[in-house]
């Protein structure tokens, strides 16, 4: 054994060279191999190792020659595997398959031979045969995490993502410490729309690589999907500092800022993302959305119209057209707005419409048409008014969510038998339906441009409909939102301060109960919670809890109140439908139905919402995070309550 400074040194070998190559030191590996070949040019393993070095360096042509020389000296199976890969990299699929076939025949127990064959067959689009080869490799090494990962990646490439997730789960169970396995599993979960479930796996990767911008970005995106906005923002900001030219990171950061209410910061990030990828329709739609929320509707409209002319995925074009529709509706340009609003149908999951054809709004000669609820409960309540004009053109079957059934059963048209409310489990076809239409599509299908005016669609209290037995409080006047006091009893005020937390931008429309503290200073008021799952502990003043029950029981409760104070959720629509004075605490950049386009000016200079004349807006004057944007509108509500109590 050679000596150096009195110490024994290891003889240079092919194994040493391959070890150097495995850690990325191809240059030293090549130097060592050249030395070995100078001493023995007939060393087939050394020539093969040189072929591996060439492949690692991207020189497939040299790898082919070097592997061929090794095979000429000694035709080993693993030499043919390397040759097969190099030939495939050069685009020579058939010669590659011939080489892989030799490897499979000479070393049938070597899973690498079958993996090489799988890669070649997949390149030739012989997918079924490629899968058989991969599964053969897996059977030979059933406890090898890498083999499961290879199969999972293959399945995902060919659209079998659910199977890929199951396979990657097996890989993780075999090697829970394998960071690559965590990352691949997370990516597969993301592809199946299960980003929330991907979060812990992306977290493992980010912990292992805290300086890696991509790892931080993926973890931040998963936290965003879970609703952990502050932590998501911190990670995405860190990632963006490390890789400022990553449009996906800047986009996700912008959406997080938007969800938190930091609209100016969101505009900067989403604008930067679009600047990095100027003709990306998805990024353009995101940027247009924040422009619209900031009140820059002309810029948003122009951008959405541009996207319509771009070569883009159908879903991105549909998003652009739908968002254009909301801009047009916000500005009161209803004719074009309703048509563009229809693009949402391409963005929603398939509806349970029994494969009925879509109704075009034409007279059916009495044949039944199914009208169905499409999205949230608030949307359903708002658009129920269009059932009345629809009855003039067809016999109507109405399907609504179970939580609204008992309330909708109180509609005048249902009570009078002019509209049939489908029973739970009853099909529209069994009732003779020949077509169907979403409630939200009725304005476009019926050709009714302006908002269909509010009318009392539910039975009056005297008729035994919604009354809880308390005194009826008439409206003071259209749009005033105030009620006449008939006695000295406390003013009964309903409160709702939060919507569904699963909505991505709920943080902006909902408020912390503490924001309502100024209302505690108003004397002569009895507060009633309209907030589901409210215990009363979050508020600094006494509020009666909301009893258990469905929307009908809530409606009966609302019918006995003097005024309802609520954020933008179903309670606003319920109070509006009932004609109750409703004071809406509206976020900055609120929904299109509360915008100027749905507002008319009254002779006395006041404003009236075209959807709900009893509604009065108290809007945030500027965007922002947390409780601060709610201070002014809540203070204005408290002052209005003071005035109402004194009447």
Q: Can you describe what's shown?
A:
Helices cover 51% and strands 9% of the residues. It is an alpha/beta fold and 647 residues long. The strands form 4 sheets. The chain has a 6-stranded parallel sheet with strand order 9-8-7-10-11-14, sandwiched between helices.
What topology does this entry show?
Layout: E1 3-4, E2 7-8, H1 14-22, H2 26-39, H3 44-56, H4 60-73, H5 77-89, H6 93-106, H7 111-123, H8 127-140, H9 145-157, H10 161-174, H11 179-191, H12 195-208, H13 213-226, H14 229-242, H15 247-260, H16 263-276, H17 281-293, H18 297-308, H19 314-330, H20 334-341, E3 368-372, H21 377-383, H22 387-391, E4 395-399, H23 402-408, H24 412-415, E5 419-421, E6 435-438, H25 442-446, E7 491-496, H26 506-509, E8 525-529, E9 543-544, H27 551-559, E10 563-567, H28 570-577, E11 582-586, E12 599-601, E13 607-609, E14 615-619, H29 631-646
Parallel strand pairs: 3-4, 3-6, 4-5, 7-8, 7-10, 8-9, 10-11, 11-14
Antiparallel strand pairs: 1-2, 12-13
Helix pairs in contact: 1-2, 1-3, 2-3, 3-4, 3-5, 4-5, 5-6, 5-7, 6-7, 7-8, 8-9, 9-10, 10-11, 11-12, 12-13, 13-14, 13-15, 14-15, 15-16, 16-17, 17-18, 17-19, 18-19, 19-20, 21-28, 23-27
What is the overall shape?
Answer: elongated
How much β-strand is present in the residues?
5-15%
Strand order of the largest sheet: 9-8-7-10-11-14
CATH-derived topology of the largest domain: Rossmann fold
CATH superfamily grouping of the largest domain: Glycogen Phosphorylase B
Fraction of helical residues: 40-55%
CATH architecture of the largest domain: 3-Layer(aba) Sandwich
Structural class: alpha/beta
* Low-confidence segments: 1-8, 468-485
Q: How many structural domains in the coordinates?
A: 4
Distance between the termini: 107 Å
Number of DSSP helices? 29
Question: What about the largest sheet?
Answer: 6 strands, parallel
Query: What would CATH call the class of the largest domain?
Result: Alpha Beta
> How much is the radius of gyration in Å?
33 Å
Oligomer: single chain
Total count of strands: 14
Name the average pLDDT. Answer: 92
């Amino acid at each position: 054994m050679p000596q150096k400074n009195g110490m024994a040194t290891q003889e240079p070998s092919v194994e040493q060279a391959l070890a150097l190559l495995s850690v990325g030191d191809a240059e030293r590996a090549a130097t060592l191999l050249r030395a070995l070949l100078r001493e023995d040019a007939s060393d087939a393993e050394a020539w093969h190792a040189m072929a591996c070095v060439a492949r690692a360096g991207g020189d497939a042509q040299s790898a082919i020659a070097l592997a061929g020389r090794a095979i000429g000296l000694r035709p080993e199976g693993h030499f043919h595997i390397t040759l097969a890969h190099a030939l495939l990299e050069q685009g020579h699929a058939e010669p590659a398959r011939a080489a892989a076939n030799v490897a499979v025949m000479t070393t049938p127990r070597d899973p690498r031979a079958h993996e090489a064959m799988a890669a070649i067959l997949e390149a030739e689009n012989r997918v079924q045969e490629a899968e058989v080869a991969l599964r053969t490799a897996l059977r030979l090494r059933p406890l090898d995490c890498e083999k499961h990962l290879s199969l999972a990646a293959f399945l995902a490439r060919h659209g079998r993502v659910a199977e890929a997730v199951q396979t990657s789960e097996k890989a993780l169970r075999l090697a829970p410490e394998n960071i690559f396995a965590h990352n691949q599993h997370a990516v597969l979960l993301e592809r199946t729309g299960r980003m929330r479930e991907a979060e812990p796996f992306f977290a493992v990767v980010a912990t292992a690589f805290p300086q890696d911008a991509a790892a931080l970005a993926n973890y931040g995106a998963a936290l965003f999907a879970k609703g952990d906005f502050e932590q998501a923002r911190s990670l995405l900001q860190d990632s963006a500092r490390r890789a400022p030219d990553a449009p996906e990171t800047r986009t996700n950061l912008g959406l997080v800022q938007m969800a938190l209410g930091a609209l100016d910061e969101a505009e900067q990030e989403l604008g930067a993302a679009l600047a990095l990828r100027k003709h990306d329709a998805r990024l353009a739609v995101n940027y247009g959305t924040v422009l619209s929320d900031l009140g820059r509707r002309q810029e948003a409209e122009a951008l959405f119209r541009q996207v319509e002319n771009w070569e883009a995925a159908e879903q991105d074009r549909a998003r652009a057209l739908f968002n254009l529709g909301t801009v047009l509706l916000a500005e009161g340009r209803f004719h074009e707005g309703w048509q563009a609003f229809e693009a949402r149908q391409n963005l929603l999951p398939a509806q349970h419409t029994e494969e009925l054809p879509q109704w075009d709004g034409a007279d059916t000669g009495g044949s039944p048409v199914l009208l169905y609820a499409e999205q949230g409960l608030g949307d359903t309540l708002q658009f129920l008014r269009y059932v009345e004009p629809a009855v003039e053109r067809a016999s109507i079957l109405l399907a609504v969510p179970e939580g609204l059934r008992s309330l909708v059963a109180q509609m005048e048209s249902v009570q009078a038998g002019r509209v049939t409310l489908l029973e739970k489990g009853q099909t529209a076809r069994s009732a003779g339906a020949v077509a169907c239409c979403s409630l939200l599509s009725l304005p476009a299908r019926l050709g009714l441009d302006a908002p269909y005016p509010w009318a009392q669609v539910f039975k009056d209290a005297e008729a035994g409909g919604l009354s809880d037995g308390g005194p009826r409080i008439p409206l003071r006047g259209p749009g005033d939102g105030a009620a006449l006091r008939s006695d000295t009893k406390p003013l009964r005020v309903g409160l709702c301060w939060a919507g569904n937390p699963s909505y991505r931008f709920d943080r902006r429309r909902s408020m912390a109960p503490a924001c309502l503290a100024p209302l505690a200073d108003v004397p002569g008021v009895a507060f009633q919670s309209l907030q589901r799952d409210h215990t009363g502990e979050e508020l600094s003043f006494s509020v009666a809890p909301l009893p258990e029950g469905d929307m009908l029981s809530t409606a009966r409760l609302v019918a006995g109140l003097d005024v309802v104070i609520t954020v933008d959720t179903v309670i606003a629509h319920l109070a509006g439908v009932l004609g109750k004075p409703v004071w809406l605490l509206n976020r900055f950049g609120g929904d299109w139905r509360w915008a100027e386009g749905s507002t008319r000016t009254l002779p006395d200079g006041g404003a009236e919402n075209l959807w709900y004349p009893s509604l009065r807006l108290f809007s945030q004057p500027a965007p922002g995070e947390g409780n601060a944007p709610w201070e002014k509108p809540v203070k204005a509500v408290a002052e209005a309550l003071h005035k109402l109590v004194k009447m």
